[in-house]
Amino acid sequence: MWPTVSGTSVAALLVSHDGARWLPTVLEGLAAQTRPVDHAVAVDTASKDASADLLDQALTPTGGAVLRAPGTTHFPAAVELGLEHLRAAGEPVEWVWILHDDANPAPGALAALLAAAVDHPEADVLGPTLREWPSLRRLLEVGVTISGTGRRETGLERGEYDQGQHDAVRRVLAVNTAGMLVRRTVLEELGGFDDQLPIFGNDIDFGWRAAAAGHTTLVVPQAVVFHAEAAHRGIRRTPLTGRHTHYQERRAALYTLLVNTRARFLPFQWVRLLFGTLLRMIGFLLVRSVGEALDDLAALLSLYSSPREILAARRERQGRQVADPAEVRALLAPTWLPYRHGLDFVSDLAAAATNQAADVAERRRAAAIERDPSSLAARRPVADDDDESFEDTGVVARFLTSPIAVLLALFVVAALIGARDAFGSVVGGGLSPVPASAGAWWSLHLDTWHALGQGTAVPAPAYLLPLALLASLLGTSLTISALLVLAVPAGAWGAWRFLRVTGRLVSTRGASRWVLLWGATTYALVPVASGAWGDGRLGPVVTAVLLPWLAHAALGFADPSADRRWRAGWRTALLLALTTAFAPVAWLFGLSVGLVVVAAAFAIVPSAMRDRSTWGPPAAAVFTVPVLLAPWWLPSVIHGASEGLLLDIGRLPAPASDALDLLTGRLGDLGAPWWLGMIVLVAAVLALVPRATRIPVLVCWVVALVAGVLAAALGNVTVTLDATETTLGVGFLLVVLQGAFVTAATLGGQGLAAAVSGGSRARPLVAAVAVAAAVVPLGGIVWFGIGGHDELTDTEDADIPAYMVQSAVTGQEHGILVVRGSVADGLTYTVRRGDGVTLGEDEVLTLATADPAFTEVVRTLLSRPTTGVVDALAESGIEYVVLPAPADGAVLAALDATGGLQQASAEERTTRAWQVDRPLATDAVDGPRSWLRVGLLVLQAVAIVVVAVLCAPTARRRRR
């Protein structure tokens, strides 16, 4: 027993579990205190190493006590065992100094804590500065608090060293239990530490309860304890921590917030932690920390599934809350702190992506130097902070002195001017009106039965999911406007990046920036010059933007690293699925190209195909797409709408294209003059001449050949639907053909430029080719700018009276039967419900099979109408019958004489309308729920998250 110091009695209470590697130093630090402790009690929880023996050897000779407890004894129970021993010994102490077996106190730690207690008699809990062990200088904690999201806040910078900057004794919410000096009476009054916090978070909870009970907690920077944080870092695992340390820490944080938050803020805190956990999970998934994301979810579910524990703990705390709530709230972290951490996380993620891109660039530069030591990459100097040659001359100056940058800027401005018709609401051609809100798209995507027409289970098109995600941020109208307005600039950006990479793969010098300018601008105009943009065909427009990024991701299949090949496979899968959503034929094309490439690789290097990392990534890229698009793919086949898997999106029929149209990049009679596309085709043929780039140009022609064969096969097939006849979709294949031609011509231009720089005498010929090629982007942008498209408008012509539309919006049973045509030429009908047929709904209706029974009702209504037919209309949810102008006189006369049909007013004299005078069936278009589709939607969500994580940049969090 250490000698007792008069005036103040202190008992050291040390808790140990498998801490033999630290205990000798900790016990030496305890014995070396300039102010010795009066009593010493150690509690060992069934250590499997020599911890208990070390404690016996150090404490028993001096009168200390070593208590042995079962391995399931948690930290609060171990502290309580120590307190019971002190009470049973009949030696009451004023202060209890709590230590961990991995916390080594500096010699003056206890003396500094007691001195602060004398200077601040109101203090009931005191804590030291915690420094990292074994570094000894890096700060861990100087007091601690908690934010509203459950984050443990120390107020320290990451990796901050102790330089005396935190030397003031101050009040805090809590101090770590490693070195905590607490009055015994306060510890007993508060019931010790909470048993629901077995190892983590009990210090913050205890400090919060102490503050609410009117007690003061101080941090004493002059007292220093070195802490190894063995449990937090995962160095030591116990039955309490298990393998999921993060789960225990997060659960403790959520529990602490829920049981200590004031009652009136509890509902808000409950919801905030729910959505905050979801956001944290997304953040963890973005940095590929799947385990921590699942730990967060498990911690939330563990607490939210047992609210009785939370309520019981809150009732136990209510009787001790005597302090002013504002005083306690001032000790918590500021409300804005979580948002700052969110910004820091985003910046860290951006830095991770930037660093990864820099690593890739450095690897490419190193490979270029290895292949050609005399290349530009080897001679490129490294910027030196002291070198004046790298002094920043200003962004504006560099921009104005770069003709490439100026021309690109003018091109983008001209493209925005040409896209002026797409500003605001857009409809016309192949583009249907958009719904009023993103909720309509979400509902259409998630519903298993659609109340359209007479009801159908045909699934919504796959592209509605990305549109709904964008519309949730931008709104429906702005989403479509942004896709159209930014199509040309975004296409130029992607094409520039792809062509620059392909050029560097061919030669370390890469392609000339003038050649890249031609290639990027020419490709960016493909959706415009084809006529797809002016006709509102979102498929070719969006896929033209996605195709360069998809091709760039596929280039990763040739990376020498197996890990990077697999990541390229997942990136390709995600981009191919997105492309297929807007152009269903894209998956068939990807499968065909994949088979050709794998077959060629097997023929060239048979041994390489034995390696799964060679053929696995392309296979994963292709066969992951059906999983990602399962809610659209499988139900389409089941419900007889499999034609939609090979049709272009948008209104049908789609424009038909012959072979010449495909080769010149035009959709039927739409688009720019054909000779602009012919120049690109001729340039792609001439690209086979330069020997230096002939092989990559041949690869482009192979891709074009695959696309051409598919286009020839699909373009000659006509699909007959109930509503119309149309050819299979070739819009995406047209984009691929033009992209392959542009890439081949760009590579050929690179080869010609290399030949000229090597001393070739063909300079006049090259100059003539360059002038002819420049006509394509110049002619295309001029044609686009002067308004070479007239299908898009602000509003759609409506022949339905407004009051009928307003009634239709009130419920699905207020349907409008619209009959067009004449008896001589044939009559057709459509059923309008809600706010009309909007984008996405038109494809569902086109692919849906007409209800034979309802068709027979309409046929009878228009030929031999009776009151029984009117009753059938009401049972089918039809409130109005409308015959737009010009209406057939014989049909008009028959409907006028039908009982149960009342004439209704119409906005045009030649348009006639009748109202059904019968009670309407509210469940006329209701249908069954498909649990198969619900399961497929869940599978899709999980698959998207998994694939996104697998292809995301790596930014692993490391513990201190």
TrEMBL record:
Keywords: Membrane, Transferase, Transmembrane, Transmembrane helix. Gene3D superfamilies: Spore Coat Polysaccharide Biosynthesis Protein SpsA, Chain A. GO terms for molecular function: transferase activity. InterPro entries: Glycosyltransf_2, Nucleotide-diphossugar_trans. The keyword Transmembrane helix applies. Pfam families: Glyco_tranf_2_3. The chain crosses the membrane at residues 399-419, 426-444, 464-493, 514-533, 593-609, 616-634, 672-690, 697-719, 731-753, 765-786, 931-952. This is Glycosyltransferase, GT2 family. It comes from Nocardioides szechwanensis.
